[in-house]
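Subject: Protein record for review, amino acid sequence with backbone structure tokens
Why sent: The fold of this protein is of interest and is recorded here as tokens.
Notation: Tokens come from a learned vocabulary of local backbone shapes, not from coordinates.
Attached in line: The record itself begins immediately under this heading.
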Amino acid sequence: MALRIVYSSTIFSSQRKGASTLPSTLTLPNTNTALLSSSSRSSIERIKSASLRNKSRRNGVVTCSASPSSSVLPKALLFDCDGVLVDTEKDGHRISFNDTFAEKELGVTWDVDLYGELLKIGGGKERMTAYFNKEGWPENAPKTEGERKEFIAGLHKRKTELFMALIEKKLLPLRPGVEKLIDQALGNGVKVAVCSTSNEKAVSAIVSCLLGPERAEQIQIYAGDVVPRKKPDPAIYLLAADTLGVDPSSCVVVEDSGIGVAAAKAAGMKCIVTKSGYTADENFSNADAVFDCIGDPPEERFDLAFCGSLVEKQYVS
């Protein structure tokens, strides 16, 4: 059974002035309190006690304060792209797919609900292939498997061009807290990478255009077909750890989807979920923590110190 602590907590970092807010619900996966270390049990009891003392404050919001036990930080912070850096899916990728289908006169439109189901398949080319295999290929599509593979690649190339145009016009903003967390990581010598199933050009455009060239120079990108198997396979996260020269157990991943969490955990990494529009109702019981976003002050949800606390294994599972 997983232990769930429900609270709204303010955690003060020993490294800086200010505060960051912990999640309203923190899930400690597969945790038996009888097996916890004495320090871990004490931390949990302090959280519970502080929560009970403050139930009547702030219009009924339960609050408490706690301090991280040390200044351990992750060696690498690995971000998914779509839904984590930018909430791109509904009004970015989906629109670009539909515009491509219209240009090619395929008679296909992916509505909001359908695209949400298709997102369970990692990768745009894989998504289109699975859809056409199930629903039937357009009349003007090739008939042989090899030609269809080239056909899908052509559609995806055009879709990426249309999507990049949206990014370059800055019509899709970064999610709250993304810049803050990346700046904290880079400023503390923590390696930063983006690991995505999306096309490498599209991911690079998001990083360069929305995060700026100075940050982009310091961020590694692993995307598209850089690995043969896409999420939920852990290959992309293992590749990132290997090329960055860090142990997977010292990495913290920020994801927004179930398949992303599965990939991160299979790679032996800690994983924080920041829910996006399409993933809000997914089951994230295997994640190390779940938030609605990263958040900027004064509505900050978590910071680099919190990421470090996960790597430090404050909570024994």
Summary: Residues 1-70 have pLDDT under 50 and may be disordered. The two ends are 11 Å apart (CA to CA). The chain is about 40% helix and 15% strand.
